[in-house]
Design brief:
The chain has three helices and five strands, in the order βαβαββαβ. The chain is an alpha/beta fold. Helix 1 links the parallel strand 1 and strand 2. The longest helix has 14 residues.
Length: 92
């Protein structure tokens, strides 16, 4: 089993990053999603909520470096120390 991190850093591509994270979970790898520095764009929320519903159902870890409902908090420093544990890191 591989460990995969998906970093959501560009607002315009958050939906695509979530969709990719959900697809990566189909291979039974450990996938975690990290929302970095800013929240989802309001205009994308309907699509993002659909992806998040599936992501929660399959057990993908959700983290953010700010307080966000439904996400576990991880400081930027802790995130930097955690990333070397992953086999693959995909920035989106």
């Amino acid at each position: 089993m591989k460990k995969i991190a998906v970093l959501l850093v560009e607002n315009e591509r958050n939906s695509e990053g979530l969709r990719m994270a959900a697809g990566l979970s189909l291979l039974d790898d450990k996938v975690d999603v990290f929302l970095i520095d800013r929240d989802f764009p309001e205009q994308d929320l309907p699509v993002i909520e659909k992806h998040l519903k599936m992501i929660r159902a399959v057990g993908i870890g959700l983290y953010s470096n700010f307080q966000k409902d439904g996400f576990d908090f991880i400081s930027t420093g802790d995130l930097g120390r955690k990333l070397p544990e992953y086999d693959y890191v995909f920035p989106y």
